[in-house]
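Input structure tokens:
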């Protein structure tokens, strides 16, 4: 048997390099983080052939004297901590002292640095982990590190490298993460002697994120249990499959965390399809003792002391903020403008009732009064959409055919629109102060119905309609067992469905708002959604089920809608969250500004 011997420092460093230095992007990450820890305000990154031939990282940080320049290539030599307890209070990116010796063991490295205020600099050259060569050198304040021929002495590792383009893209991702993490620092990326990206110093996270993403939504979601959340996210229609463009930063450190990504997606509710995630950046600030950063070789992951609580709090706070932001459509400009309402006199306009009779309706009165039910002249599977009654009762029609004098009141975005007409029995054309607004009538009504169903579901007050004769639906054995297992939760939705034998279920009651929808269709859609989300708790699938139910119970394309019905719909949209999107994520409204319209007609 062979004897146990200590590994030489060179071999030990090469083994460590297998974890720390996975590819050129790993080298760039470690060097950029060292620059930031040194207090740099400008960082320049140059790569050739994807970083496999050369990587140069230059910063204007504090620099090093000759002693530190020598020591930084010793394994586990670091200025970031001296006691184990320091791990609980770290505010720096690096702390292990493994990066530079690991890189030096698999590449040719030259470090040129000058301590701030020093008269001259120092140059350290080290090839493949051999003894470093140290000499004085002329240099600017700060540090420049050149990495040549990465993996030149471990050809097996070099074979696993991707194409130069793929490696260069990964380097770009590292620089992007650093830029999002530190908006107060300027970053320049040069690829093969050509400027690839430049992130100039920004006044804050908002401006830096805006330079990366087009019109991100600013969500200052506040604090909860010693945790502070700040997010900049895209609208649902820009979501992508997978969370590759959703970035997380914990105490300024970029991390990957699936539970946080799921929490963000769930905060959008049904407007995001399962498996799709928004674009953007989410920043979490927690006390350092609540986060363990020493759980991943490349420090790309962290562990929370109360991981479930962090994810749940993030999802709840984001849902609350998103509901407000998406209550109004995004057409550019400052997102804070979306929350503004207007103080105006109630304006009356003609509303056509059945029988061609005309009366006048004040939006201000209608907001307080009982909105008219949505009626349909063709009655094709279109149910009445009842809106909650006001304590004031109905005051839509005054005794003399004109509105009574009302005091000015706050009017919401949708109530401030003036209905012009219906197009193709599908779109509602309205006039606003700044342009023409076109609403998808089905998407708008679907959002209102969904809000009512979800609110009633949460309060366990879904109004039901008993069937005179229970309808029996044939299902599979698996589906019948699901009905058994989820009976109480399904009943809370207003569907009274009980199992009958091995392959049958009986529908005894349906939600009142869906009383005209065939019960069998409701059951089959319910089972489809539940089965689709089988890997998640039923509570996570509730929004999807309610969204499907709302789709059945809303105005559809082809339904003729009367002006008083449109008034009721507009008023109701002002009262719901996520009013800018239907429950499935489609935009409710689009706009053509008056100046754009004038350009199109040559005015």
């Amino acid at each position: 048997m062979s004897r146990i011997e200590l590994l030489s420092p060179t071999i030990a460093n090469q083994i460590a390099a297998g974890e720390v230095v996975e590819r050129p992007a790993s080298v760039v990450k470690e060097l950029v983080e060292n620059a930031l820890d040194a207090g740099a305000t400008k960082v320049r990154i140059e790569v050739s052939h994807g970083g496999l031939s050369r990587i140069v990282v230059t910063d204007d940080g504090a620099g090093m004297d000759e002693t530190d320049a020598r020591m930084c290539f010793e394994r586990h030599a670091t200025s970031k901590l001296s006691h184990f307890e320091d791990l609980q209070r770290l505010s720096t990116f690096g702390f292990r002292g493994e990066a530079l010796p690991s890189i030096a063991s698999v590449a040719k490295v030259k470090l040129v640095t000058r301590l701030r205020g020093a008269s001259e600099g120092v140059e350290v050259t080290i090839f493949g982990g051999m003894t470093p060569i140290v000499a004085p050198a002329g240099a600017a304040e700060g540090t420049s590190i050149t990495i040549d021929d990465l993996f030149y002495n471990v050809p097996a590792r070099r074979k696993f490298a991707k194409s130069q383009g793929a490696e260069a893209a990964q380097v770009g991702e590292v620089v992007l993460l650093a830029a999002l993490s530190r908006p107060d620092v300027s970053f320049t990326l040069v690829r093969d002697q050509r400027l690839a990206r430049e992130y100039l110093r920004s006044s804050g996270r908002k401006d830096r994120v805006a330079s990366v993403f087009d019109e991100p939504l600013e969500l200052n979601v506040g604090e909860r249990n010693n945790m502070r959340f700040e997010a900049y996210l895209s609208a649902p229609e820009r979501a992508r499959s997978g969370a590759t463009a959703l970035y997380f930063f914990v105490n300024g450190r970029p991390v990957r965390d699936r539970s946080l990504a799921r929490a963000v997606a769930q905060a959008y509710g049904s407007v995001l399809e399962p498996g799709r995630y928004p674009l953007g950046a989410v920043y979490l600030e927690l006390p350092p003792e609540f986060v363990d950063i020493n759980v991943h070789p490349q420090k790309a992951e962290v562990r929370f002391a109360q991981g479930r609580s962090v994810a749940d709090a993030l999802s709840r706070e984001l849902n609350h903020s998103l509901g407000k932001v998406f209550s109004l459509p995004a057409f550019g400009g400052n997102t804070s403008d979306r929350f503004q309402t207007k103080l105006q006199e109630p304006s009356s306009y003609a509303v056509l009732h059945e029988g061609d009779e005309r009366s006048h309706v004040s939006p201000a009165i209608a907001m307080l009064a009982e909105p008219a039910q949505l009626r349909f002249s063709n009655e094709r599977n279109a149910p009445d959409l009842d809106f909650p009654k006001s304590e004031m009762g109905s005051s839509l029609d005054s005794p003399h055919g004109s509105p009574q004098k009302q005091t000015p009141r706050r009017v919401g975005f949708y109530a401030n629109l003036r209905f012009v007409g219906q197009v193709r029995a599908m779109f509602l054309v309205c006039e606003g102060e700044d342009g023409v607004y076109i609403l998808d009538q089905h998407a708008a009504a679907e959002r209102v119905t969904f809000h009512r169903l979800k609110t009633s579901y949460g309060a366990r007050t879904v109004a039901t309609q008993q069937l005179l004769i229970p309808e029996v639906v044939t299902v599979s054995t698996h589906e019948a067992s699901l009905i058994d297992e989820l009976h109480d939760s399904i009943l809370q939705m207003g569907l009274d469905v009980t199992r009958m034998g091995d392959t049958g279920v009986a529908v005894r009651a349906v939600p009142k708002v869906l009383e005209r929808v065939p019960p069998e269709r409701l059951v089959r859609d319910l089972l489809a959604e539940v089965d689709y989300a089988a890997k998640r708790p039923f509570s996570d699938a509730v929004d999807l089920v309610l969204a499907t139910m709302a789709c059945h119970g809303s105005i559809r394309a082809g339904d003729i809608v009367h002006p008083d019905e449109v008034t009721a719909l507009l008023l109701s949209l002002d009262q719901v969250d996520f009013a800018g999107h239907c429950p499935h994520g489609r935009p409710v409204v689009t706009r053509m500004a008056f100046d754009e319209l004038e350009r199109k007609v040559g005015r």
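The longest strand covers residues 464-474. The longest helix spans residues 307-325.
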